[in-house]
Amino acid sequence: MTKEQLFDQIKKKHSYLCVGLDTDLQKIPVHLRDLEDPIFEFNRQIIDATADLCVAYKPNIAFYEALGPKGWISLEKTLNYIPKDIFTIADAKRGDIGNTSELYARAFFENLNFDSITVAPYMGEDSVKPFLLKADKWVILLALTSNPGSADFQLLQTDDGTDDYSRCLFENVLSTSKSWATDEQLMYVVGATRPDFIQRVREIVPNHFLLVPGVGAQGGNLADISRLGMNQQCGLLVNSSRTIIYASNGTDFAEQARAAALLIQQEMAGYLSRYLG
Amino acid sequence: MTKEQLFDQIKKKHSYLCVGLDTDLQKIPVHLRDLEDPIFEFNRQIIDATADLCVAYKPNIAFYEALGPKGWISLEKTLNYIPKDIFTIADAKRGDIGNTSELYARAFFENLNFDSITVAPYMGEDSVKPFLLKADKWVILLALTSNPGSADFQLLQTDDGTDDYSRCLFENVLSTSKSWATDEQLMYVVGATRPDFIQRVREIVPNHFLLVPGVGAQGGNLADISRLGMNQQCGLLVNSSRTIIYASNGTDFAEQARAAALLIQQEMAGYLSRYLG
């Protein structure tokens, strides 16, 4: 998917919501658990209930990998079920030496036809480049994550190569990596638990899309993120997983997921109207 | 597996060789490709040919993941075939927020019974801790990798929190993470293409095992690594993948793999004798 197609979806749906498909056998409603493929059945109903309210779906690959080979089959069925005009994110956080990253790219962009994959930056440029070889396929690089451990290394003061130590590691990750691809193929993960940092991110990458996790269960604030992070093409995908998909664990789970997604979408419509005009 | 059991194997086999199972359908001998599970058949013969010469096997998970669900089945069969006294490493380079890392730990330590997994440090402590919850299961944390991109971030001068900017990021990763677990559960990846850094690593983590990739195809030097990196319990696992498993692509591939592994093992026996006495 191109950046323009993504922005068109955002304008059409008045939404920059990404629904995280962190689908866990232990958490889905009891009445689904005896079905042949409960994970896919849950996802199918969540997608049916939310597809007109969101512009992206983000399966968290760990949840499928933890189920072994049948988890990959559920993932593939889910991906094929998502409407083609909705952006898909493999939240896999991969990254390895070049020939290995090539194989991960094959796994997620060829065998599975994801639009994008999340990638960890620690191993540098040649670990990321193999994911950028296909037009309209995206890397979403971890910059600032939303977990407590993000402070361990991402916030260390770091030399940028010019004896300037005023920047944190995540800022050097942004400034170095933005030359690896254009904003038509590269996005960044920027955690919502630290909205003050969104301004610092925007100083370095004004035009890139940011994938913002952590709204809802992790305590981010949609108003701050939208005010500080939105650019002229929206430039934000804000993810919510548990708040939406586990809004109810009864037979009304899909209906309640829709209600939770609708609340967020309506708030987003207001910000889009205010900041994009 | 405990550290003591691993060291016992090293003494018994006079070897600290890890064989990397980077098994690629495009590279295995033609005569295997029509079998029902060529990947497993290749691995089985490599294991039969090298099990008395090495102390660890390291399947590179990308190579299996790229094959979809059937790749996971080949991986599981391979893991079950490896003799139980040989250390197993899931080279997966995972790492995510806590509840997600828990699921990756389930995938590699429960569904698959690996002894260890490689983990990327960028997301910090709570992304690593879920892999440390089971006794005798190991995290092998990326510190200094062997690819060109390691220079992008791992070698940035970084404040360690005390306004001391003399250390590189990889050194801060070592000094911070070594408190997360003992050397009975934590090892580090340290690339062999920079043997001068092995001394700096040993100043920070004198007792931990180091997994050293990059001997052979990536150009590392076994003599330097062994002289600079060996400690009183050996403390080294040196990996070789392509040099061994693709020593020949004919019907003699297993025999040639054994010959290549034997050369390395014999060199290692010399270093063990010299440095451990």
From TrEMBL, chains A, B:
Domain Orotidine 5'-phosphate decarboxylase residue range list: 16-257
Residues annotated as signal peptide: none
Protein family per UniProt: Belongs to the OMP decarboxylase family. Type 2 subfamily.
Record protein name field: Orotidine 5'-phosphate decarboxylase
EC number: 4.1.1.23
A Pfam family assignment: OMPdecase
Record SMART domains: OMPdecase
Catalysed transformations (reactions): orotidine 5'-phosphate + H(+) = UMP + CO2
One BP term from GO: 'de novo' UMP biosynthetic process
Organism phylogeny: Bacteria, Pseudomonadati, Bacteroidota, Cytophagia, Cytophagales
Molecular functions (GO terms): orotidine-5'-phosphate decarboxylase activity
SUPFAM superfamilies with a match to the protein in the record: Ribulose-phoshate binding barrel
Active-site residues, as the UniProt record annotates them: K93
Gene3D superfamilies according to UniProt: Aldolase class I (3.20.20.70)
Catalytic class of the enzyme: lyase
Recorded metabolic or biological pathway in which this protein acts: Pyrimidine metabolism; UMP biosynthesis via de novo pathway; UMP from orotate: step 2/2
Keyword annotations from UniProtKB, A to Z: Decarboxylase, Lyase, Pyrimidine biosynthesis
